[in-house]
Amino acid sequence: MRIRLQQINPTIGDLSGNKKLILEAIHQAEKDDIELLLLPELITCGYPPMDLLEREVFRELLYQVNNEIVKATREMVVVFGSITKNKSGLGRKMFNSAIVAQHGKETARVHKALLPTYDVFDDLRYFEPGNEFEPVIINGFPFGITVCEDIWFNDNDIQYHIYDKNPAEILADKGARAIINISASPFNKDKPVTRKNMLQKHAKNLGLPLFYVNSVGAQTELIFDGDSLAFDGTGTMKSRSKRFEPDAIDINFNPQNNEVEAISDVESNFENPPKEQVMFEAIRLGVRDYLKKSGAAEKVILGLSGGIDSALTAVIAKEALGAENVKAATMPSEFSSEGSVSDSEKLAQNLGIELLEIPIKEIFKAFNNALAPHFEGTDFGIAEENIQSRSRGDLLMALANKFGYMLLNTGNKSEMAVGYCTLYGDMAGGLSVISDVYKTEVFDICRWLNAEFYGEEIIPEAIINKPPSAELRPEQKDSDSLPDYGTLDTILKYYLEEQRSREEIIKAGMDAQTVDKTLRLVDLNEHKRNQAPPGLKVSAKAFGTGRRWPIVQKWTGQEKSFPDLKN
């Protein structure tokens, strides 16, 4: 049996566009003599469609799309993901389903059983869980069909809750001789390794071939990397697709002996690339798809400070959109170092992007003059520093408005976590490109870009080597206000991604005073993050929809004992 696993890049809500992509995939597979075509989860509407699903007209149009795709099938069997109607009158109005079609008819329907409600997922808000587990006969062979979370079972990056049913295991017990999983599984920097290991373990434990097809493309903050995989019953990987682009892998599956062999040579995809590479490729796709799918703009602008964050953002923008679609501005003040302009000029020249120079010294002076009667008798401080940041934000937004650009925000995760950023200033923008990348990772990616991606010094070494600074007061350094980034990022990873307590972080070797300060800054600055642009998710726990923290609250995470509740 010739099986194709095809990862497609849908757009949420673009039902006609998605249908076109699906029909093109079906027609091409038929030409290539494919017998079974596997397409990703909710490929008809894109994942996650969120509250679009609450609109009856949206659901009804999706049901029509389902019918049109089913009618387009011929000899080849197609398995694709969509919503289907819950006709019982009980529970939620729809299922998240895998639809099986052949000869213009729907031959089977399998509902997703494990509905995640953690991190960025909210499936149980919309879908009724499936509770029937029976193999589906395809061309005389019993396949166990599962949908996304069904195959992860209890193997997630962070285990929020424990499922009591293992759909793949139940299907195997009921006679399935191979497992299919159709997915829309978002990327994070560890996912290529954890996903492969999880699938490999299931295939080996079940002793069954496993075919996994995943969606690709970016949907607002979520990035889908594709990375479709095929394993034989020993857990040996037989085929693996490209990442971060539409692709298909074809395999020969022998139902007589369950042998799985790749039709084309794809062994170059088998090795897991370094994290710096997959993070860069993911964010590049995220920027490209955000602009293309939102239709918000074709060109972008960003501020170049001469620092490493804006340098990385500029590189990503250029590689995602082309140099002709990227414009940058350097906006020196009286506190800017000489390198803030010269290093920006060198980077812009290396990338081939246009660079504007707009000094803010006189703008800053005008603000100070206007505020002088009200600030009289006070010392230079945060207010004056933030005036500079907000002046730059205003200038960038003015350019964006005037010429129809989208402003890219250049702040990193470390700064965003502790609030080392200015509302309506350097937090301005339509998309936060590296807001889920720690400062130490920014350095790592920049070094990788020079060494491996370009093979030459595109990002000036002066930018990589200079001590980080906001340059908003004389001789300012980030280390004046924050722990060194190695220490800070370690604490943040423990607290945010591993969800360790204060005591656990200290026990891991972190200084108690530094931990207390860091955790307090994280919790007190939720109001800033709540007003930040959407950011591209590349970690297991990113700010945004995946981390829901109350702005008004008094829990600091640092209490050593409960108060006397009687009082």
Q: Which secondary structure elements does this structure contain, and how are they paired or packed?
A:
Blueprint: E1 2-7, H1 15-31, E2 36-38, H2 56-71, E3 77-85, E4 94-102, E5 105-111, H3 123-126, E6 136-138, E7 141-147, H4 149-152, H5 167-173, E8 178-183, H6 191-206, E9 210-214, E10 216-219, E11 222-225, E12 229-231, E13 237-240, E14 247-254, E15 259-262, H7 275-294, E16 300-303, H8 308-321, E17 326-330, H9 338-351, E18 354-357, H10 361-375, H11 382-403, E19 406-409, H12 413-418, E20 431-432, H13 439-454, H14 461-465, H15 485-497, H16 502-507, H17 512-524, H18 526-530
Helix pairs in contact: 1-2, 7-8, 7-13, 8-9, 8-13, 10-11, 15-17
Helix vs. strand class:
alpha/beta
CATH superfamily of the largest domain: Carbon-nitrogen hydrolase
Number of domains: 2
Strand portion? 15-25%
Explain this structure to me?
- With 567 residues, the chain is of the alpha/beta class.
- It has two domains: 2-271, Carbon-nitrogen hydrolase (Nitrilase/N-carbamoyl-D-aminoacid amidohydrolase); 277-474 and 525-530, HUPs (Rossmann fold, 3-Layer(aba) Sandwich).
- Helix content is 38%, strand content 18%.
- It contains 18 helices and 20 strands.
- It has helices spanning 15-31, 56-71, 123-126, 149-152, 167-173, 191-206, 275-294, 308-321, 338-351, 361-375, 382-403, 413-418, 439-454, 461-465, 485-497, 502-507, 512-524, 526-530, and strands spanning 2-7, 36-38, 77-85, 94-102, 105-111, 136-138, 141-147, 178-183, 210-214, 216-219, 222-225, 229-231, 237-240, 247-254, 259-262, 300-303, 326-330, 354-357, 406-409, 431-432.
- Strands 5-4-3-2-1-14-15 form a seven-stranded mixed beta sheet, covered by helices on one side. It has a six-stranded mixed beta sheet with strand order 6-7-8-9-12-13. It has a five-stranded parallel beta sheet with strand order 18-17-16-19-20, with helices on both faces.
- Helix 9 (338-351) links the parallel strand 17 and strand 18.
- It is elongated, with a radius of gyration of 26 Å.
- The N and C termini lie far apart (72 Å).
- The model is unreliable at 561-567 (pLDDT under 50).
